[in-house]
Amino acid sequence: MARRDSARRDWDESDVRVRPNKSGSRPRTKDRPAHRDAVTGRIVTVDRGRYTAVLDEDTDRERLVVAVRAKELHRRPVVAGDLVGLVGDVSGAPDSLARLVRIEERATVLRRSADDTDPVERVVVANADQLVIVVAAANPEPRTGFIDRSLVAAYDAGIEPLLCITKTDLRDPAELISHYTALELPVLLSGPARDAAADDDGATLPLDRTLVEALRARLDGHVSVLLGHSGVGKSTLVNALTGADRATGGVNAVTGRGRHTSSSALALRIEDASPGSWIIDTPGIRSFGLAHVDPDRIVESFDELAEAIAECPKGCRHTEASPGCALDDWVAQGRAGDAGTSRLASLRRLLGAGERPGESREDKELGIQ
Ligand SMILES: Nc1nc2c(ncn2[C@@H]2O[C@H](COP(=O)(O)OP(=O)(O)OP(=O)(O)O)[C@@H](O)[C@H]2O)c(=O)[nH]1
Ligand SMILES: [Zn+2]
Q1: Whose alpha carbon is nearest atom 30 of ligand 1?
Q2: Has 144 been labeled as part of a binding site?
Q3: Atom number of ligand 1 nearest to Cα 2
Q4: Which 3 state secondary structure label does DSSP give 123?
Q5: Residues enclosing ligand 1, CB less than 6 A?
Q6: Does the N-terminal or the C-terminal CB of the chain have fewer CB atoms within 10 Å?
Q7: Which ligand 1 atom is at minimum distance from the Cα of 237?
């Protein structure tokens, strides 16, 4: 099985920015050069200073254009999913090179920090509106710590999370799902077609069509990030959804997948879906540090609890140990409804995901709980 994650070269300096300038990654209008002739493209991947964008999407002029960044962007990161302005040779002809002069304002930004104490955060993907957390029911064992961390990152980014459980032929996922009942987290399942024997080749395993179609319907019309540890069957799913087939050397017409060997995020078009439906695969991501996360943003994802925090002490982190946290009274008074207690327990577990004492870096990378 081909492993695409080539360790530490997945992020370079330009992917990095330093707190506390929270709005720093959003281009401010006054910084923008005029470039009125720039055309807009969507970044599908970034590899060694080369930015690949798709232009004139869903028209008969659709093409891939490779660009280098203009100096005036400084070190501002450009990532998969970014909408960018391009000038120069935007023909997409072989060996042509355009110039990337502008990053359009991002609807969402999925971020991570290297670990929970590292204040440097990296932009992972821009403009996604769904985060699909892929775990296997078994082999490898699902880690609720990893799921919780990914949920926190999604809530922080204002991106809708979904849980996708693969290899449901190996174990009934009911117990795993029960951890998330109170979160109202949509769960989608995947497994092999009934007559398929699981083998070592992820690209050829035929998946249950009904389950794949349910996932496709859920992703239709969205830009979804797929996140999951190696071996969970993410490539198998991506291949089923995009029609790419790495095993036979097939190449996705739009993205050139098949030749793509780097570990950076890659946007792929979903087959048989409406225009604008993309999945962004993130092969290089193993760790999900949460040092950048603002606890208020996580609470705000819980509608019935969000109002309570106006009554919290300044700087409250809303954990069980936070003195004077207003969430406890709010729930005790029934203001969060019948499910208030379990919702608060789930919220607190998530808030604790970045703050478990004694966790090693390895634990964090794997999301071991
Ligand atoms: N039993 C079973 N095996 C599966 C299923 N989906 C994928 N597999 C197998 O799991 C293994 C890993 O699948 P991949 O799709 O390569 O997994 P991945 O998450 O992309 O892993 P990397 O390629 O290492 O990033 C392969 O041997 C697949 O055949 C499933 O639903 N059930
Ligand atoms: Zn509080």
Answers
A1: 167
A2: no
A3: 23
A4: strand
A5: 1, 3, 166-167, 169-170, 190-192, 198-202, 205, 228, 230-236, 283
A6: N
A7: 15
Tens of pLDDT, residues 66-92: 999 998 888 889 999 999 999 999 999
Q: Which atom of ligand 1 is nearest to the CA of 5?
A: 25
Mutate to test the pocket of ligand 1, among 189, 204, 236 (most ligand atoms within 8 A of CB): 236
Based on the fold, state whether residues 186 and 307 are members of the same structural domain: no
SS3 state of residue 249: coil
Using DSSP's 3-state secondary structure scheme, residue 227 falls into strand
361 occurs within a structural domain = no
Ligand 1 atom with the shortest distance to the CA of 199: 29
CA angle 294, 15, 222 (to 5 degrees): 70
- Atom 14 in ligand 1: which residue has the minimum CA distance? 233
pTM for the model stands at: 0.82
Ion ligand 2 contact residues with beta carbon within 5 A: 312, 316, 318, 325
CATH no. for residue 61?
2.40.50.140
Q: Is 237 exposed, middle or buried (0-12, 13-18, 19+ CB in 10 A)?
A: buried
Summarised one tens digit per residue, pLDDT across range 311-364 is 999 999 999 999 999 999 999 999 999 889 999 999 999 888 766 545 444 444
**Maximal CA-CA distance, the chain:** 66
Cα–Cα distance list, 24 to 28, 77, 106, 127, 227 (Å)? 9, 10, 12, 16, 25
As a whole number of angstroms, the distance between CA 102 and CA 105 comes to 9
pLDDT-derived band at 33, boundaries 50, 70, 90: low
Predicted-complex ipTM score? 0.97
In a domain, 247, yes or no: yes
In this structure, the answer to whether residues 41 and 128 fall within a common structural domain is: no
Instruction: Look at residue 66 in the predicted model and tell me its pLDDT.
Output: 96
User: Residue 168 Cα, ligand 1 centroid: separation in angstroms?
Assistant: 12
For 227-282, write each residue's pLDDT tens digit: 998 899 998 999 999 986 543 333 344 444 444 455 688 999 999 999 999 999 98
Cα dihedral 133, 135, 137, 139, rounded to 10, equals 180
